[in-house]
C-alpha cells in the first residue's frame, strides 16, 4: 500500500444505530483520514447521545470519539459539512432519504439495495469494478435538476460481493465465463438485528433467503459487465455482461454461523480447453485490486487468499483475516459438470458491507470525486 | 401398507454399541417381526451386559429387551441362529468381519462402505433400486467356495441416499438425466461419535468431508444404473448408468446441525424440452417405492414429501417426519444453468443409515432371500 | 395409571397460533377425552382456517383434526360449549380476555402470569399442589357477581415448575426447607417466538431474564405453601410458606439450548442433621404425584427420574423422557455451603407449560370442578 | 502502565502444538521483551518445522517468527538458553517433564494442574496473589538437591481464575468472606482440542466437568490464603485461608459457548452488616492488581470491569475486552440466601490460561526471580 497524505474528510453515517451503522462507526473511528462528523438515525434516537441511543452489539466498546456525539434525524441539513455520507439505512427508508441527500449535493455511499438497479448508479465492489465510477458524471448530468457534486453510489449485496471477486479474477485471467452455479451458506448477521429468531436457526438450515438469489444473479452481471455506448444519444449504459452472456444460478441458505458467508461455486469458461485447477489457483492468488494499487488504506494486501489445505476456508477461522477486507478461496478443483469448482468465504459485515462502502469512498477521494479533495 | 403376518426373524447387530448400532437397536426393539437375538461389539465390550457396555447417546432410554443382553465379540459362532445380521461396524473392521460372516452362511446388511464397490454386492437404497437383489444369486455362486445362503448387501452413504431418491423419481417420470450438481450441508451425526470436535463446528462451516464427494458421484451411478449382461460369460454386471452417461458433481459441507442432511440439487434432463417445475413437483409427489408397495413395515407412506412453502424442508422441522424414513423436497424451480433445481432433506441416521438396512432386510424377507422365510 | 372412562370434554384454546397454543393443540389432538372444539386468536387470524392462520413451528405436522377449524376471536361467545378453555395468551392481553371468559362462566386454565399473584386464584403445579383447588369455591363466591361455574386457574412459570417438584418431594420427606439457591440455564423456547434473536444467543450466555428471578422466588412460596384461615372472616388465604419462612435466591441465565431448562439447586433443611445425599435420592425417586395417583392420563409414571450417571440430566438427552411430563434430577451430593445440591431438568414447553395446564384440567375433571362432569 | 525498558528474555514453550501452546505463541509473538527461542512438543512433532507440526486452530495465521522454528522434544537440553519456559503440557506428561526442567535449573511457568497442590509451589493468579512468589526461595532450598535458579510456578484452573479475582477484591475491601456459592457455565475451549464432541454439546448443557468443582473449591483457598509460619522449623506454608475458614461450593456446567466462562457467584461476608451492592460495585471497580501497578506489559488497565447494564457480561460480547486479560462483573445485587450475588466473566484461554502464565513471568522478571534480570 503506497503512502498517502490525504487531508481529513468529514463524514456522516446514516442509520448509525443499526447493525451496519455500528460497523461503519467501528471502522471509521480508526480511519486515517475519514473523521466522523455527524450521525443520523430515526426520530426516536434523534437528540440523544450516541451511547444512549444505540443498543451496541459489537465486541469492542463504543469508540470514545462518538460516544457523546448527538444523533440527528436523517436530514441533509445536519450533514452539510460532510464530504462523504455513508448509509447503513434499511431499504424501507433508504430510497427517499438517500435521494434527498443527493439533491442536497451530498455524496452518498449506500449499502441499501434501493438504487443498485438504477441505470445511472454505479454498483461497485471495490476489489472489482472501480471503473464504474465513470458513470458518476452522467448521473449528475441527467439528474433533474443537474447536480454539481451530489451522487449516489452503492456497493453490492453481501453474498454477491464474495463471489464476484474470484469471478472477476477468473475473467481477467482467462476471458469470459459462460455459466456459474452458486450455493451459499450465509451467516445470521447478514439479516441484521434482531434478524433471524434463534428458534428458526439453531440446529437448523433454512434453505431460502427472500430475494437473495435474484440479487446474486442480477448484481453479478452489472458488476462484471462493462459500460457501453447506449445508442446514438451519446450516453453510456451498464452492459450487464451482454457481450458474453453469462448464465448464473444461485441457491441461498441460512446456516447457524454468526459471521462469514461461505459459497460453493462452479464455473464454465467460454474458452476451450478451460484452465486447469492449478492455473486457476495461480490466477486467483495473483489478482490485485485497483483499490490496493491506488493506495486505499482499507484495501487488503491479498485481495484473494488461496488456501491449500483441503478443509479451508472456514468462516470461524478465516473471516477476520485482513480485518475481513479480502476474500478467501479454497478447494479449487475440477467439476464434472462445469469446469472448475471452489469454495469462497467473505466476511459479510466487512467486505460484504461497511468495508466496501468505505473502500468505495477512498476510491472516490483518490479519483477526485469528492469536491474539496479534487486536484 | 398391506397387512403382513410374517413370522419372527431373529436378528443380530454388529457394532451394537456404536452410533449406528444404537439406532439399529432402537428401531429393531419396536419392529413387528425382527427380534434382537445377538449383539456384537469389540472385545472391550464382550461379556458385559449391553446397558453396561454402551455409552448410550439416544434421546429415549435403552430398550428393556436389550438392556441385559450380553454383548459378544463379532464372531459368526455367536450369531448362527440369526436369520439376518445388521452391521453398523466402522469401515476399518467391517471388511474382514462381514466377510467372515458371509462365509459362515450368514446374511449381512451392512452400513459400512467396504463392499459398496464390489461388483457382486448390491448397493441398495430401498426406496429406489430393490431390483438389484437380482445380483444376490451370482454373489453366492461366484463366491469361493460357493454359498448357499450367505451374502452381503449394502446400503448407500447417507448423503447419497438423500439425493438418489428424487433423482430416481425424476428418471422414472422423465427419462434419463444428463448432469447433476449437488451441494450438501451435512449434519454432525453423519460423522459418528465422538466424530466432529465441537471446536471445529460451532459457529462454523467445514467445506470438506473426506471421501464424501467421491461416494456421492460413484454410488449414485451404481444405484440409478441397471444390471446388464457382462459379455458372453452369462454373468451380470452393474451398468453404472452406462447407457446414458450421467455427470455428477458434488460439493460436501459440514454444518452445525445435529441430524438431517440438506442438499441443494440441480439437474439437466436428456429430454428436450425438460419438464416444468410443476411437472417435477407432481412426479416427485407421485413416486412410490417397491418397499412400500410390497408391504415393508418400515417403509414410509410418502416416499417423497414435496413442500410448497418457500423455506422448507428444514432439518430441525422435517427430519423426524415419518420417523425419518422418507425424503423431503422443496423449492422446486427453474435453474438458469441446468434445468431444474430443488432442495432435498434426508435424515442421515434414519433413511440414511439404519432404516435403510432394515428396509433392505424387510425386502429380503418379502423377496424370499432369507432361507427360513422362503416359500 | 388407573383406567378411566371419562366422557368427552369439549375444549377451547386461546392464543392458538402462538408457541404455547401450538403445543396445546399437539397434545390435545391425542388426548383421550379432551376434544378441541374452538380456537381463539387475534383478529388478524380470525376467520381463517387454522392451517392458514398459523406459522407452524412444530416438528410434526398440524394435526388433521384442527387443520380446517376456523379460528375465532378470543370472545366467550365462541367458546360457550367448551367445558374447559386453555389459555396460551401473551400476558399483554391475557388479563382482560381471561377475565371476560370467567365472567361468562367459563373455566380457564392459563399459562399467563397475569393472575398468578391473585389471592383467590390457585397457582398449581399439578405434580405438587393439587390441594390448592380448594380455593376455587372462594374465587367463585367472592367474584362480583358471584359465579356458579367460572374460575381461573394458573400454572407456574416454566423455570419455577422445574425446581418446585423436587423441593416439594424434599419437604414431604424431610420437613420444611430453610433456604434454597437456584441458578438456571434456560432454553430459548422459554421466550416464545420470535423470542430471542439468534445474534444474541449463538455462542453466548445471557445472564439475565427479565422478571424471571422474581417469579421463581415468589411463585415457589405460593406453590409450596398451604392454605390457611385468613383471620376471623371465615375466608382462606394462601400462606406463602409462612409457617416456616423459606429464603429463595434465583439467578437466571439464557443459554443456547432449544428446549429444556437446566437448574443447579442447593438447599438447606430446617431439620438437623440434614438427610444424606442417598436419603435425598431415595426420597426424590419415591415421590408420587396426586395427578398420577388419581389417574390423570397425562401424568408421568415417574414424577422425578433420578439419574445415577455423573453427567446427567442433559436437556438434549432427557427433555423428551415421558413426553416431557416428568422432571429429571441428577448429581445429588453434599453442598459445602448449604446442605445438599443437585441438578434439575424440566421440559419448559411440556411440564413447564402446556402439559401442566392439561394436567390441571384433568385434575379438575377428576375432582368434579367441571360442571357436566361432576357427580 | 508505567514504561519499561526490560531487556529481551529468551523463552521456550512446552506443548507448543497444543491448544494452550498455540495461545502462548500468539501472545508471545507480540510481546515487548519475551522472545520465542525454543519450542517443545511430543516426539511425533520433533524435528518438524512448527508450521508443519501444528494443526493451527487460531483465527489469525501462524506468526511469521515461529513458522520455521524446528520443534524439539521436551528435554531441558534444548531449552538451556531460555530464561523462562512456559508449559502448556497436558497433565499426563507435565509432571515428569516440568520436574526435569526444574532440576536442570530452568524456570517453569505451568498451566498444568500437576504441581498446583504442591506445598512449595506457588499457585498464582497474577491479578490476585503475586505475594506468593515469596515461596520460591523455599522451593529452591528444600529441593533435593537444592536449586540455585530452577523453580516451578503454576497458574490456576481457568474457572478458578475468573471467580478468585472479584473475591480477592471483596476481601481486600470488606474483610474475610465466610461462604461462597459458584455455578459455572464454561466454554468448550476449556476442554482443549479435540475436547468436547459436538454431539455432546450442541443444543445441550452438560452439568458436570470432571474434577472441576474440586479444583475451584481447593485452589480458591490456596490463592486467597496467605503464607504463614509452619511451626517452629522456620519454614513457611500456605495457610489455605485458614485464619478465616471459607466454605466454597461449586457447581460446574459445560455450555455451547466457544470462549469465555460465565459464573454466577453468591457470597456471604464475615462482617455484619455486609456491604451494599453499590459498595460492592465500587470496590470491584476500584480494585487494582500488583501486576498492573508494577508495570507488567500484559496487565489489563481495568482489572475488573463492572457492567451497569442488566444483561452483561456476556461471553461473546465481553470476552475479548482488553484482549481477555481482565475480568468482567455484572448484575451485582442482593442475595436472599447469602449477602450479595453477581455474574463473572473471564476469558478462559486468555486470563484463564496463557495470559496468566505470561503475567506471572512478567512479575518474575520485575521481582528479580529471573537470574539474568535480577538487579
Automatic annotation (TrEMBL), chains A, B, C, D:
Pfam families: Semialdhyde_dh (PF01118), Semialdhyde_dhC (PF02774). One of its GO terms (biological process) is threonine biosynthetic process. Keywords: Amino-acid biosynthesis, Methionine biosynthesis, NADP, Oxidoreductase, Threonine biosynthesis. GO terms for molecular function: aspartate-semialdehyde dehydrogenase activity; NAD binding; NADP binding; protein dimerization activity. It comes from the Eukaryota. Residues 10-136 form the Semialdehyde dehydrogenase NAD-binding domain. Its EC number is 1.2.1.11. Pathway: Amino-acid biosynthesis; L-threonine biosynthesis; L-threonine from L-aspartate: step 2/5; Amino-acid biosynthesis; L-methionine biosynthesis via de novo pathway; L-homoserine from L-aspartate: step 2/3. Coiled coil: none annotated. The active site is at residues 158, 261. Belongs to the aspartate-semialdehyde dehydrogenase family. Catalyzes the NADPH-dependent formation of L-aspartate 4-semialdehyde (L-ASA) by the reductive dephosphorylation of 4-phospho-L-aspartate. Mediates the second step in the biosynthesis of amino acids that derive from aspartate (the aspartate family of amino acids), including methioinine and threonine, the latter of which is a precursor to isoleucine. This is Aspartate-semialdehyde dehydrogenase. It comes from Cerrena zonata. The lineage of its organism: Eukaryota, Fungi, Dikarya, Basidiomycota, Agaricomycotina.
